[in-house]
Write a structure and sequence with these properties.
The complex is a heterodimer of chains A (365) and B (312).
Chain A: E1 4-13, E2 16-26, E3 31-35, H1 42-50, E4 57-62, E5 65-66, E6 77-80, H2 92-102, H3 107-121, H4 136-148, E7 154-158, H5 166-183, E8 186-191, H6 194-200, E9 203-208, E10 211-216, H7 218-223, H8 228-233, E11 240-248, E12 254-257, E13 260-263, E14 271-279, E15 284-286, E16 293-301, E17 305-312, E18 315-322, E19 332-337, E20 343-346, H9 359-362
Parallel strand pairs in A: 3-8, 3-9, 6-7, 7-8
Antiparallel strand pairs in A: 1-2, 1-4, 4-5, 9-10, 11-14, 12-13, 14-20, 15-19, 16-17, 16-19, 17-18
Helix pairs in contact in A: 2-3, 2-4, 3-4
Chain B: H1 10-38, H2 42-45, H3 59-65, E1 66-70, H4 85-92, E2 95-100, H5 103-134, H6 140-149, H7 159-169, H8 175-200, H9 204-211, H10 216-245, H11 248-253, H12 261-268, H13 276-306
Antiparallel strand pairs in B: 1-2
Helix pairs in contact in B: 1-13, 3-13, 5-8, 5-10, 5-12, 8-10, 9-10, 10-13, 12-13
Classes of the chains: A alpha+beta (365), B mainly alpha (312).
Amino acid sequence: MAQIKVKNLRKEFGSFTAVESSTFTIEDGEFFMLLGPSGCGKTTTLRMMAGLELPTSGEIHIDGEDVSNKRASERDIAFVFQMFALYPHMSVGKNMSYPLLSQGMPRAQAREKVLEVARILGIEHSLKKPVRGLSGGDRQRVALGRAIVREPKAFFMDEPLGALDAEFREHMATELRALHDRIGATTVYVTHDQMEAMQMGDKIVVMNHGVIEQFGDPQQIYDWPATKFVGEFIGSPAMNFLDFHGSVARGSTSVLLGDCEMSIPESLDEYSGAVTLGVRPEHIHFSDHSSYRGEAIAVEYLGTTQIITIQTPHGIIKARVSSEVAVNSGETLGLTFDARTLSLFERTSGRALLSETNKAVIGNG
Amino acid sequence: MSFSVTEPSKRQKWFAGIVVVCYTLITLMPLVWIITTGFKSSPDSIAYPPKVVFTPTVEGYVNLFTTQTRMSPGVITEPRDHLPWYEQIVRKKGNTIVGPSRFSERFFNSVIIGFGSTFFAIVLGTTAAYAFSRFRVPLKDDLLFFILSTRMMPPIAVAIPIFLMFRNLGLNDTHAGMILLYTTVNLSLAVWLINGFIDEIPIEYEEAALIDGYTRFQAFYKVVLPQAATGIASTAIFCLIFAWNEYAFAVLLTSGTAQTAPPFIPTIIGVAGQDWPAVAAGATLFLLPVMVFTIILRRHLLRGITFGAVRK
């Protein structure tokens, strides 16, 4: 159980900078998500925290202790690998007792401890089996068991569900979250799957190109993306972006999108030039009174909701509306956006403009 | 009947079976020839057409292990049945045993030099391959290529420099010298083969061990080695077969104390006429250690050779 602090962490591989300069704090007992597309530096960050990679510069504190240059074995953490990395030449029980025996725990005591953890995970009948014959899910449980059995200060997991079948992944995600709630240990979890991150995480860090784009809880990140990248990466379908040229004054509550005036949350920034208006698919509504119009070009039925693809004067957008709304392909629709939920981005930097509604989330950044 | 694209038909299986049997017969022929000749009498061994059915005798083996001399008829005084069986055999030809031959000594040299050089090639090869596979070695690719390049000519091409070096260093005709030489020749093969096997083992296993609280060496010893065992075993067989069979260097560099069996066996021919059964007996015995070693490791060998052929 520990708080983990990462300060100005940087990693270079030759001339390539994998992690620019990361700073964040993970509170004790948190389920913490490192989220980003592949190659964004999330795994490198995790490996530096675990001691499998040494940072070029920066500090890592686990439980108040600076471990930046300590060996992995001295950090008292457990790591769950994507490919599980169960020792193939050992049985399930041996795999799980391995970290205990390395600490010099007597065999009998280790066996008892392994049995206890195996019961929690529901694999107590497989302890004698070789790991080769196990199903993906059971392998995953053994890998978790090997991590839990030592009662480490923190769990680090590198896409632990990545190797599982889609349907089973969901099940394991729930199981994993329940296990975390039961044990209450600090967990750092790397994933590229935004659904997984939203579903399981207490806090999420979104990374891209070695830079932390945003840090916050799932809802904050979803509602108030700090950058255009976050809005695009989180959510399915992604946030819609309407590019236009215009100016926003401090205190203004609307922008001109083409000829139409659009209400926006009260702006706390001023900017003029290339701007992007960001709107989530579920915040688009149809109204015949609206002068902003678009043509429906595709309709995807998803049960309770449907996704309508719309050609607007500022590009293609996707709207998520109730299936009860009758829309035909080719139809011209009047569009309104929930003013309260809109975000504006500087197009060149991708940075979100500060407004009355998002200041609580991105205000200090 | 089910139809399958990949499953061979019954006729194809039969054909494949016949090819395998033919091939096996062809490969086994010389072996059968050598083993049977070892148990033939001298006249039987050169009989034409070759005798398939013959009275077996261990005369060849007795000749192989002993030094004999011709007796003048008057010397035979003792009653025959008090003599040991091997003396009785040589008496039939009018000879008597005056002492052991050099064969067992040479054979023992082969065992020491063959297994010794294999041991060192494997230990050095495994550690070097591990380093190449896991650490950032400066000029790694160039070094690996350099190691491989030592194999690009027949080793005997450097016989003269090696001979001169050995003479200056006092390594001529010593066990240490021969072990050193065979280790050197085998090392490139060992590094390359084992490097391939270790590359196949995901590094996560070691990382897991490191996090579980083991040192780098423990991770290597307890996690990597058991998984590379297959590859190491097959590499060991290749190394042993080379060192065991090597002839040219053995002829050049050994003559007395450290002479191995390969250069010794041909010298048997000249002792008392062409004693083919003794030569065949020597060859048969010479085959045994490699055969035993291969049989012990055969489970690993088959997997080792095909290892890495299919991406998992």
